[in-house]
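Listing S7. Sequence submitted for prediction.
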Amino acid sequence: MLDLTVSGFLADSPDRLLDQLAGQAMRSFRTNEAQQLRAWDATIRVLRTALMGWDAATSWRIVLEFSMRRLGRRVDAILVTPRAVLVLEFKVGQSTVLAGDLRQVEDYALDLHDFHAGSRGHVILPILVATGALDLRPTTWPLLLNAVAPVLSTGAAGLSRLLRDVWVRLPEPSRPLDLAGWTRAAYRPVPGIVDAARNLYAQHGVEDIADTQADAKNLAVTTNAIRAAIDDARRERRHIIVFVTGIPGAGKTLCGLNVVFGAEREQGATFLTGNPTLVHVLREALARDAACGDRNRLRAARQRTKTSIQALPAFRDHHVRSAEIPAERVVVIDEAQRAWSRAHAVRKSADREVRLTDSEPAHLLDIMRAHPDWAVMICLIGQGQEIHDGEGGLAEWGDALMARPDWQVRSPSDAVGSLGDPRQRLPPDLPVQRHASLFLDVAMRSLRNPHAAAWVDLVLAGNAEGARELAGRHGPMPFRLTRSLADLRTGLRGAALGRRRCGLMASSGGQRLRADGLGAELPHMDAGAVARWFLDRWPDIRASDALEVAATEFSVQGLELDYAGLCWAGDLVRLPAQAAWLVRNLRGSSWQTLRSDQAIANRLNTYRVLLTRARYETQIWVPSGDAADLTRRPDELDAVVEFLVACGLKAPETPG
């Protein structure tokens, strides 16, 4: 990054500026070196021509190659003026303005608005410069308010006039920008799980991702505790299991990925998950990134990612069948609370090639214990995330460890004891080294309100008073209600600017949503369909932001969207005369109320997963129902809305 005044930029020679950029930034780029140098040279010369002879601009700051850590990219140029931040992206030699390029520069501006303290409260104007394009002076000027303005575009020849036109239209701010301090202002980007995996896979450690985040201390302390366990196991020749717990969206998966892609990679570390969607999406994202758009390299890149991210069932079955000592000494088990209980494992594998004789935790412990000297298991525990029958939770790990005393156990205090849901606790008599640092209590996913997950817990517990009090004290909560599916789609498209991703979600038990025209469900076992939904973009109709196909809890658990559209269904409703959630399944043409405590808990956890997927906002559509259809009674759906309003949300506008 180069940061200098416009006068200093103009006084220096283009060749010297190019040398400085090459020396500081080239190692961070994977593009062709000669191509990158040509692009920088053209950018410098176009900017010099545009700014030359403009006395008003001499004291401004010009920042070249500003690092956008969340996006894994760098902005070509930023002009910091007393009235606004101008974000410029150059497409050298390009004669057309492409929609993807407009989204790119808009996303840079949004990132500054959301995460950069020096830009907050000021106009941020994204400008795309397709150097070979004609003068694209706007016919209608946007309002330049204290937020991200619509993208303007121009060619190289028109940049000088566009900048001067912008300057005279910018209002005088009540608080001028701090020109000299802009680059020193805190920039705290919070990466999505896919962005984080890409950066870690590219050999950037968790510190590079987290050191500019507001919650870096929380994340770094947990990461260091995991590393300490690995060091102790190797030095003391021990077998150690580490449990990491935390609130939804607190960064458990990020910690695990850092182990797999970080310094521990040389120990043979792998990320195991029973969540096929997470496997599909992360593998494909890493492979696409590594291939750099080269289709011929994509197949090989996909093959390489298979060793780092593995499907837990395939790993388990291979080693149960072969009894081989694993190549990996360190395994990270994602969503470890979803591991099968003994009874479920035996029943599910009875007619399979590999028959299990014990619980999944027991088999996995024995597989890693085959290393005669040392091994480490890191179990990431999502509390209240059990959504399948047969998921044994922490209790199943506790039972397996009680029978295997040679494993040293490390966990946070909240994972041990007899209070609360017994599935979410290790037994109190299990010998455990307790480490407070293994609990992540700072929400990373919910960018607009870190208390969103706690609010969701109160809502699903039926505690309207507590939820309303929390919303009043820490609100507003990042949830919005609507009764119109059309308004939901419009709201999501209007909110998800730049490369922000939106998508529809629904419970797998919500079959009656098809009566409202929402019958297409993302097939979570189809690897190609899942990867396209999460990674591709509109106008590909298979992408999430086409808003045509809804993903269920099985597709989105462990992943996230920027803006989520939750389609509330009849499998979780309230009756006007009752003060509790009614949990049910559709059987034939009627609903059947669930009575099993575990089945009820799983359904509530389904909605907990769906309500905690959004990084910015969840827009909730509750259908109006149909009095003539007993499976879609309006009074039951109205009661859901009334309860959510009682919990502190704004009442929706009447549809139509």
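Caption to Listing S7: primary sequence and predicted structure tokens for the chain studied. The CA atoms of residues 113 and 479 lie 20 Å apart. The first strand starts at residue 2 and ends at 5.
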